[in-house]
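Class, look over these structure tokens:
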Amino acid sequence: MAHRVHDRQSRLPVAQATVLALPPTSQDLRPRWTALDSLLCGAFAGAVAKTVIAPLDRTKIIFQGLLLLTNMLYCVCCTQEAFRLIYCTYMKHGLLSLWRGNSATMVRVMPYAAIQFCSHEQYKKLLGNYFGYQGKALPPFPRFLAGSLAGTTAAMLTYPLDMVRARMAVTAREMYSNIMHVFVRISQEEGVKTLYRGFTPTILGVIPYAGITFFTYETLKKLHTEKTKRSQPYPHERLAFGACAGLIGQSASYPLDVVRRRMQTAGVTGSSYGTILGTMREIVTQEGVVRGLYKGLSMNWLKGPVAVGISFTTFDITHSLLLKLHQMGYFTH
């Protein structure tokens, strides 16, 4: 009897070792995609896209605010005048002046893009579970809703940074020296509420913009997969899909973007824009519908598709790279 007990005890560690040495299942080998990965990829994608189009973005804000570095007003906004402004800025203030306010842009864009892409992945999962499309492409309305919710979430959490970026873009360097100086001076001279001026038109503009942009991009990828039988598009195809998404989304929401910028820069332009309807009415009365509400749209058609295409492509490529690194065991959670 004692011999039997001893024999069983001697075999126990072997059995435990056998259990511990079992090969991992296919589910264990599957790379795990976390919210942190989405945040990192989104932040990087936003930073790359905005840095590339920073000179055009600053020029667009100046046009929308009716303020030039030479203290002149542009009555007609077109691509030719946009490049003329960029050239004059370069000649007068140097190359780096074209990226004036880009540090504030990075402070805003990186958390904005990180939150937007991360929340979009989460909303897709939630809506997929709710509508019964787990692991599958969402139908049109939930696809649009996921994009709208993602954009709204990001805008709500990062809006004061957008206000700071707009102020730095349309003012001389002597007025605001850095990001913190903008926050302090606006709070002291105009009140903390000013940091949220233009918040309502921002949200109203983000809902169609983000919804249409994500919807268009996801739809084009889905149609591409169905037609070519390839699970992933090539990078140049992603750029094209993103460009189309950005063009459609920004064209649809552009008037509210103009209203938002006018309300944000009212403190430095001497205007008194208080409400959305009041601002829109004043713009239409003084400048007309096309030259007022669509001021700078031609430049947006140039920079918008480029920015969105680069952003979506960078996110997808970085996403795929991180998944491969997870699969190879470089990262553990």
About this structure: The radius of gyration is 25 Å. Residues 197-308 form one domain. Residues 8-30, 66-77 have pLDDT under 50 and may be disordered. Residues 140-170 form the longest helix (31 residues).
